[in-house]
Amino acid sequence: MDEVNKTLYIPLYGKAYVSQKSLFLRDDMAEKIWASEGFQLTGKAKSKWLAYYMGMRAAVFDEWVMEQLNKYEEAVVLHIGCGLDSRVLRIGTKRMWYDIDFTEVIDERKRYYEEASNYRMIAADIRAHNWRQHIRETRCAIVAVEGVSMYVTNDELRAFMQQVSEHFDEAVLLMDCYTELAAKLSTYKNPIHDVGVSRVYGVREPQTLQSEAFTFVHEHTMTPVHFVQQLNGIERFIFQKLYAGRFSTKLYRLFSYNKKS
Questions:
Q1: Distance between CA 177 and CA 249 in Å, rounded?
Q2: Distance between CA 93 and CA 174 in Å, rounded?
Q3: What is the distance between the alpha carbons of residues 91 and 65, in angstroms, rounded to a whole number?
Q4: End-to-end CA distance of the chain
Q5: For the chain, does the N or the C end have fewer beta carbons within 10 angstroms?
Q6: Which residues are bridge partners to 171 per DSSP?
Q7: Which GO BP terms sit in this record (predicted)?
Q8: Where are the domains of the chain?
Q9: What is the pLDDT of residue 261?
């Protein structure tokens, strides 16, 4: 895998770590993959604090997808940048679900997951248009874009959102983003450096990604109180200072968008 694709090991480790500790989410598949393959992470990429954050982020996305599934009865799910994530298993929906990532990631993913009548894996680059040809549904989409935006430009993100808008009558989208400050600071210090990534992009404000296709709806927290409270004593205190404080929102944010009617 190239350097960007190798970043999938960081959230995979985080989900396996918190799952073993019975925190935030249960992810048997992450535990299984991590234990069987013995991937190597070093430095901050294997920090327990980052693992907590990655696990918490995944749980927040899980909750949002489940909430949208309850709202939109005809919606299909698109998980962009799925990596080796098992969200489709954690949520367990019978809706049509598409996991989308680069070809070499999907090739790796197929070692652990099998397609089904309501589940497909699509090898595609969202900066191109080829992902759309694999999706026959056009009514409504729930789009989770997790751990992707920082590796593509703002123009490329807007172009992807335009493609979603052109393909579906209705769509809702949740996406985590670095701020411009975080992108600048990443030149000097970022756990993704431990897997070889050196170039990332930030978003100035959520409205930066608005267009004729999508409008900004809401900013979400990646560290909800009900998850932070699952940590105990000194760990809770340290985590709140490192990842749940005011400074953290100056670096990393979570935005939802709806397709304009």
A1: 10
A2: 18
A3: 8
A4: 40
A5: C
A6: 141
A7: methylation
A8: 3-259
A9: 66
